[in-house]
Design goal:
By secondary structure, the protein is mostly helical. The protein has 20 helices and no strands. Helix 1 packs parallel to helix 7, helix 2 packs parallel to helix 10 and helix 9 packs parallel to helix 15.
């Protein structure tokens, strides 16, 4: 049950971060809205995050964790810490000059990242300014990602999972205070992002030091283990770049649509990211070091069993979340964001976009649960090939749907490409004998689907009965959403227990104390 405990720890901290994130987004929607300034800031925020996910959390982590966990398993903590220090010094030798070059070239890079902004000189200038302020965030998040991988590998998940909470707290404080002292609210948010990177680095550094795993920083050298790290990173960079290219493509296409399209995508994705981050990211982070250690120790049956449990637990939480977003997208968006500068039109368009994103939610989470099956075996190439195929699907569908359906078509394309990716990953693992769905997974999947359908029917009926409340005052809308959520949770929980989709013993093992 160590896997479920790890998932539960990461998921609980991520949930706390996401709740604060919604508070932040509600304030942003009211103060900034969904217009030109919001589009400029969201592009600026996405820019360093794109490279963070590409290098720090994408290729680097996927290659580093199996090597670090293997060294830890076979040679002990001292050798693993020394390897981490060598990797960190080389990572910084790449990221620091890269950050400087990007700062210098920002206006030209923005033409490629959001070409539609060029038609609006004011929006373009704001996007460049905001991104230059935000971009050093990448440097500190590279450090955070590295230290997070180190402490996660020794089963210390809580502090690393809680680090994003600092970002949300600092951004909320920026909206409450410095927003009145800076040029615009967008400037205040941009400075908050940069400051949050420093805060998260200090947070992780103290936890690594407390665990005795804070790496030293030797001079950068391409030792054999670092060469091996880069050999694994190279296909990983291409693999991560496929996913990030899909996101970048969505931003490029949305920048060509009428003002507000990027914002609708942003707000919808923020809601969709809640179950993805709480479940999908938690599964991937907890599963990769565990599989790496088990495979290095030759425990193949245990590795396959943990792969099955990860898929089961992921779908138990993700399928009902996807159904809830599909059925109740409009009231969720109305309650969370509709106030101040965020009007009824923004609610309608964002809710429709969320519905499109939600169709792909189970696929996004399955990708997180299946990818460690390749990474733990130091196979970075197969996910790249599958990712390229999914990117072709994304480009084709987005190009076909963006004109008639605007940003909704872009969201549909993203979901379609995710399903291609997830199904292909699962099929390849199965063909290679690395994924063998056991009787428990097969039986429980059918029961989870049945419980989800019962919950969706209950949500639809409850939402129909509360329709007038969702169109009344803010207090009425909030109360109605609480009733809706409570109904969904109660029906799904009761259905799971009645049908045998989950057992209380499993949940107690996941959320109980580790002995």
């Amino acid at each position: 049950m160590a896997l479920l405990r790890g998932i539960a720890t990461i998921g609980a901290n991520t949930m706390a971060s996401r709740v604060l994130g919604f508070v932040r987004d509600v304030m942003m929607a009211a103060l900034v809205g969904a217009g030109g300034m919001a589009d400029a800031f969201f592009v600026a925020f996405q820019f360093p995050n794109l490279f963070r996910r590409l290098f720090a959390e994408g290729a680097f982590n996927s290659a580093f964790v199996p090597l670090f966990a293997g060294t830890l398993q076979t040679q002990g903590q001292d050798a693993a810490r020394e390897f981490a220090g060598r990797a960190l010094s080389v990572l910084l030798a790449v990221v620091i000059p890269f950050t400087i070059l990007v700062e210098i070239a920002m206006p030209w890079l923005m033409l490629g990242f959001a070409p539609g902004f060029a038609a609006d000189a004011g929006k373009f200038a704001l996007a460049v300014q905001f991104t230059r302020i935000c971009f050093p965030y990448l440097l500190f998040m590279a450090l955070v990602s590295m230290l997070g991988a180190v402490v996660n590998a020794i089963d210390r998940f809580a502090v690393a999972a809680a680090a994003p909470i600092l970002l949300n707290i600092i951004m909320i404080l920026a909206l409450l205070g410095p927003v009145h002292w800076t040029t615009t609210s967008g400037h205040a948010l941009a400075w908050a992002v940069a400051l949050a990177g420093i805060a998260q680095f200090l947070w992780l550094a103290q936890d690594a030091a407390r665990a005795g795993m804070l790496p030293s920083l030797p001079a950068p050298r391409l030792t054999p283990d670092i060469r091996r790290l880069f050999a694994l990173m190279l296909p990983g960079i291409f693999g991560a770049s496929v996913f990030q290219l899909n996101q970048w493509l969505g931003t490029v296409l949305a920048s060509l649509l009428p003002s507000g399209a990027i914002s609708y995508l942003w707000y919808a994705d923020r809601v969709n990211q809640l179950p993805l981050s709480v479940v999908g990211v938690a599964v991937g982070v907890a599963l990769l070091p565990l599989l790496s250690r088990q495979l290095r120790a030759g425990a193949l049956d245990a590795a396959r069993a943990n792969q099955n449990r990860a898929i089961e637990f992921a779908l138990l939480l993700t399928l009902p979340a996807a159904a809830a977003l599909l059925v109740s997208a409009w009231p969720i968006i109305a309650v969370l964001f509709q106030r101040g500068a965020f009007d009824w039109q923004a609610t309608d368009r964002t809710a429709a976009t969320l519905t499109a994103f939600a169709t792909g939610l189970p696929a996004y989470v399955l990708i997180k649960a299946l990818s460690p099956g390749f990474f733990a075996r130091e196979d970075m190439t197969t996910p790249v090939k599958i990712g390229v195929a999914s990117m072709v699907v994304n480009i084709t569908v987005a190009a076909a749907l963006m004109i008639p359906f605007q940003q909704i078509g872009i969201a549909v394309a993203t979901s379609a490409s995710a399903w291609v990716n997830a199904l292909a990953l699962g099929w390849v693992l199965w063909r290679r004998g690395f994924l063998e769905p056991d009787a428990r997974l097969k039986a429980r999947l059918v029961r989870i689907v049945a419980a989800t359908l019962l919950m969706a029917a209950a949500l639809a009926a409850t939402q129909w009965g509360l329709d007038e409340q969702f169109r009344a005052s803010t207090l009425n809308r909030v109360a109605a959403l609480c009733v809706l959520i409570g109904t969904g949770l109660a029906v799904f929980g009761a259905a799971c227990l009645a049908l045998g989709a989950a057992r209380l013993g499993d949940l107690r093992a996941a959320f109980g104390r580790k002995t």
